[in-house]
User: What shape does this take?
Amino acid sequence: MHRSNRMQPNQNRRHSGFTLIELLVAISIVAILAGLLLTGVQSARRAVDVAAAAQDIRNLDQALTTFHSEFGSYPPSSIVLYERVDEWDAISRRKIQKLWPDYAAGIDLNGNSTTGESGVSLALNGAECLVFFLGGMVASDGAPRGFSRNPVNPFKLDSGERVGPFFEFDLTRLKPTSGGKFAYYDSFPDQQSPIWYLSSYDGRGYDIGDICNTGDNGDLPNGMVDSYKKVVSLVYDDGGKIWYPVGTSEFGAPSWGEKSFQLISPGRDGKYGIGGYYSEGLSDPKQPGWWAGMTMNLQSCIDGIMPLPWGQNYDKFKSDRDRAGDKDNITNFSKGLLN
Assistant: This one.
């Protein structure tokens, strides 16, 4: 008995702390829990960012609808403004007279308080048109002040009766582009690409030049080659391995916002993707893994043309890598993310 009593303290000391294995297990459990917590926080943060960008799109959509109610037409998504009235090119003149039929005055584009100077112009792309037409002329304090109700000179900055702005821009997300122009960025952290606007010109059709015409516009949506179009229906070919859009043609596919416009937030990755066919909520267990609701753009692939049974040709579906930029786009015609 006496010997047994002497051994008891040693046994207690051996079990008084964690073994190395127990510590490693505990650390692993904590790391797993921390990882799960971080993943949950990141997912919640992403959901908040998506919701905020979607709300921006909804608000801009409503602002454009209000603009249409005021002027009877949606804004163009590309235009060149000229200081001198007699220097306007025919296309830009038609676009501006669609909004202001009696327009006949000069503009002060360079801010030197002189209107109608020769050789002074300003080209606006879709992102810049969105800001210019919803915000209007910018006062000396940098705030958008809408447009004058003077039908001859809507661009005049004065204290007379005005219309707009049609949207209350968050000035911290209103960033200069070039030559005194501005674009509006969504609320994703460190966003490098602005919200893009494409007009269907009240149903006359989306202009491919508004998307990929590099001309004087610059800063066009990198990689995007077409507006988003609907998939009317699909058929299987080659044992269900390939799907084709049918009921459409290369130049006749109905577009989303066919008679209005498309607003595109590039999402977290800042990429617009390639555009082209999109079918909301399309799902089928036979579809290839890279399909997931999007198809190819008919004008973007020139190799690997696959014939349909009745002889029409459509390009191959773009791969998951090619259309990766589309996936997290947020638009006015989709319920949240495109994919």
Observations:
- The chain has two domains: 19-72+185-339, 73-170.
- Confidence is low (pLDDT under 50) at residues 214-218, 235-244, 246-251, 282-319.
- The radius of gyration is 28 Å.
